[in-house]
Amino acid sequence: MNPSDQAVLPPGVTLIDSHCHLDEERFAADRDAVIARAHAAGVARMITIGASGGMQANHDALSLAQQHQSIFATVGIHPHEASTVSPAIIDTITRLAKAPKVVAIGETGLDYYYDNSPRPAQRAAFRHFTTLARQLGLPLVVHLRDADSDAVTILRDERAGEVGGVIHCFSGDRTSARVFLDLGFHLSFSGIVTFKNADELRAAARMIPADRLLVETDAPFLAPVPYRGKRNEPAYVVRTVAVIAMERQQPIEEVATLSRLNTERLFRLP
Description:
- It is built from nine helices and eight strands.
- It is α/β, with parallel strands linked by helices and 270 residues long.
- Strands 1-2-3-4-5-6-7-8 form an eight-stranded parallel β-sheet.
- The protein is globular, with a radius of gyration of 17 Å.
- The model has no long low-confidence stretch (mean pLDDT 96).
C-alpha cells in the first residue's frame, strides 16, 4: 500500500501542524491560499515558528498569529544565528514571549552539522533560552542536529524538564528517542518519516508513547513523499500522519487525534 493513497482525514477529524514557518518569503505570493488549503485538508491550527530569520521573523510570526485565529506563534533565535544573541535581543524575546498567542520559546538548540554560528555561542544561546522558558513557564521548541550529547547536558543542567517541550523534526533512532523521552520531552515527526531511507526513524515512531507524539511539516522545508523536493505546506502534514498511522497499525484518525491533543496540551492551546 502506498501511504500517500490513504492521506485523507475522515470528516470531522482535525490536525495541528505543530511547527511551520509561514512567515517565509516562499509563502509571500500565496500565504492566504496556503492557510486555506491547510484548513480544507483538516489542519485546523498551525504553530508558526518565529526563529529563522533573526528578530524580524519573530515579529512576523507574531503578526500572523494575531491576524489569524487558527495560528499561534513561538519566539526565539535559531542556532544558526546564535552568534547574534545579545542582552538586548534576550530582552526583546522576553517581551514578545508575553504577548497573547505566543505559546513557546524557540526554536532554539544546537546545529553542529552546519555550524553557522560558533559552537560556544550556540551553547550559550541555548542555555539562555532554556532558562528563559523556565522563568516564563513556556515549553521549549528544540532544534538539534549532530549535537545530542551537548543538548542533553544543557537540558539537564538548566532543568528544562520543569517546562518540557518538543524535539522538533526528530530524526534519530529508538535509542536517542528514549533519551529525550526520559527528559520529559515530546518528539515531533516531519516529512522525513516518509522518506525511503528512514527505517530507524519509523521504528522510533512505532515505539513512542501515544502521549508524546507530535507531527509537523517544518514548511516550507522537508516536504513528505510524494511532494519531496517541492515547497512544503501545512496541508501536507496529513501525509506524514498517514505513514505514522500505518507504522503504528492504527487508523489515521487515531493518530491525528492523539497528535492534536498532545499539541494542545503541550502548548496550552485553547
